[in-house]
Amino acid sequence: MNYLVTGLGNIGEEYASTRHNMGFMVLDAWAQASNTVFSTERYGSIAEVSYKGRKITLLKPSTYMNLSGNAVRYWMQKLDLPLENLLVICDDFNLPFGTLRLRKSGSSGGHNGLENITFLLESQDYARIRVGIGNDFRRGGEIDYVIGDFTEEERKLIPDICDKVIEGIKNFVTIGPERTMNILNTRIKNEMQG
Predict the structure, then answer these.
(1) pTM > 0.85
(2) Tens digits of per-residue pLDDT, 140-156?
């Protein structure tokens, strides 16, 4: 079984530690933990990890956030994968910081990366894990907020958040989206309340 896991973000050193690059951060953490490195390929950086007999291609698009669909469509076709074997990791300012939400399909929720993927795949029926980055900004300040850096307190929690997302991806490819939603979405809720 092959899967494509795409982490959304913007290329360039100036964006590396920004909230909008949460998807890149998760994949970087997994590659590092797996002793694998990304290579520059068409439309993005690619790494491969194996987990319980599954081959998982990690993709960090080099197309900038608003054109992420170009990279996703190309790699889905190249790997000849069905939509149910795609998982996208992205930030979401509609969720409290650190909250994780897996959905099997749905709207972009105003996220430009998801919007472009949906447009180019001509479907919103692909799974995504949204990573909450909070919304501590004044009206109209969304762009500056998402391309701004995490606070020092938030930065300390990022390794733990990345670990939880990676665990969610591993569950997604082994036990499927429904059971993963029950674990990932519920556990985070309980942790936030606890």
Answers:
(1) yes
(2) 778 788 888 888 999 99
What range does the domain containing 63 cover? Answer: 2-193
- Residue 107 belongs to what H/E stretch? none
Active site residue 111: no
Among candidate residues 3, 9, 20, 100, the one labeled active-site is 20
Tokens read off for 16: 């590396």
Closest CA to 188 of 101, 91, 95: 101
Distance separating alpha carbons of residues 3 and 10, to the nearest angstrom = 22
Torsions phi, psi for 3 (to 5 deg) = -135, 155
- 114: CB partners within 8 A, 6+ apart: 8, 68, 88, 90, 108, 128
**Which CATH number do you get for residue 36?**
3.40.50.1470
Q: What is the DSSP string of 125-192?
A: -SEEEEEE----S-TT-HHHHHTSBPPHHHHHHHHHHHHHHHHHHHHHHHH-HHHHHHHHHHHHHHHH
> In total, how many domains does the chain have?
1
Measured CA distances, 159 to 29, 86, 163 (Å)? 8, 23, 6
